[in-house]
Amino acid sequence: MEDKFEPLAYRQFVEERRDQIRDKITTALVKAKRDDTVTLIAVTKYIDPLRARVIAEAGIRDFGENRWQVAKPKIEEALPVTWHFLGPIQRNKVKPIAQHFDSIHSVDRVEIIDLLDRYAGEYAKKLDLFLQVNISQEEQKSGVDPDQVEALAKAILMKEHVKFKGLMLIGTQHADDLQKRHEFNSLYAISKALKQSLSLEHLDLSMGMSDDFPIAIEEGATMVRIGRYLVVEENTSTFKRNGVSLD
Ligand SMILES: *Cc1c(COP(=O)(O)O)cnc(C)c1O
Fold it and tell me: Which helix (H) or strand (E) segment is 82 a member of?
């Protein structure tokens, strides 16, 4: 980043947004009559290591990135955080991803499950895996088709060095609130059916981003992945939709 970094101003910005997000999470949980909690993942792909450190100092302990090369300089800072990988997984990046991340949200095929399990074994760790589900069934969109989710979940459950943690969804961009709510609710329904058929006690639901996290929580999200709203000093008018407005 070329801009001049002003640590105090950025810290103040981050703490303010963090508090607003926590309030919105609480409000959405109350509205949905839920008594569990939601994990806030700060998506740091937009920011440099100096800013990432401020996010960690603000007490946020889960960080997300969608590309290994972009994540690398921040991971090298050895911040006291859990790293979540959120992006498309290329074969030749599986090794560093398995080495440096704790949790992978974007698993979508058996080949990648096999590789993650193998490298996790080599690094003597256990990786948390999420299956990314393609709810809207758009051609170009990545993710597992809903009717393939159970087969892939079983493939994960058979492995030694990976754990089946839950399901992940990227809501259709620019969809209206109703459509988004429908997508989030569909993932919830898939997760509920899967828990039953595989006799699982708990599955996390990784869904909801800057524009739509309150809706995602109302529909059952247990992890929200928030980038722009938390880490980018942007005009708040970008976030007027979906109850994320600051007014
Ligand atoms: C970038 C990204 C996010 C965060 O999106 P914002 O709109 O910036 O909050 C969440 N999930 C994934 C998979 C992403 O790539």
Answer: strand 82-85
